[in-house]
Design brief:
mainly alpha
């Protein structure tokens, strides 16, 4: 009996061991909660920084769009008929009359003929309705019936 009592006393843990185990479990839970909070904080900080960067880029886009619109307006003014005409006259160009224009014939040059897609086909001598071959006007049912009738008339031989 004495041996059994000694074994039970050895198996039973001391109170300070149980207390250490509870403290260890508490600290483990605390570390896990701290890790989850740290990961959450990291993700939140990254999302906030990305949002700030997007906001900064949007703030840079607005002045660039204004500058673009200003440059397009300046280009439109510089390429307008009146502005081009004034610059041409300042360089010594002047308007010409049809009598002053000289056309030069280039030997061997053949001008491309324009394609008129609106011309009806009847003018060109083609039939006005599309031509469909008789083979394509037959339904599947008619085709199989004709095949059946032709094989029956041939004595069942193909």
């Amino acid at each position: 009996m004495n041996n059994v009592t000694q074994i039970v006393q050895k198996v039973r843990q001391a109170p300070w061991r149980v207390q250490h185990q509870w403290i260890g479990l508490f600290l483990l839970a605390l570390v896990l909660i701290a890790m989850v909070a740290g990961i959450y904080l990291n993700v939140t900080v990254r999302a906030t920084l990305a949002g700030r960067e997007i906001q900064t880029l949007r703030n840079e886009i607005t002045p660039n769009q204004r500058d673009n619109a200003d440059l397009e307006t300046q280009l439109a003014g510089l390429t307008s008929f009146e502005a081009v005409q004034q610059r041409a006259e300042a360089m010594g160009f002047q308007p010409t009359s049809p009598d002053e224009i000289t056309y030069v014939a280039v030997p061997g040059y053949v001008a491309q003929s324009a394609v008129d897609l609106s011309t009806p086909s009847s003018v060109l001598g083609l039939p006005s309705s599309p031509v469909i071959l008789p083979e394509y006007t037959e339904s599947w049912f008619d085709y199989f019936m004709n095949q059946q009738a032709s094989s029956a008339s041939a004595g069942g031989q193909p």
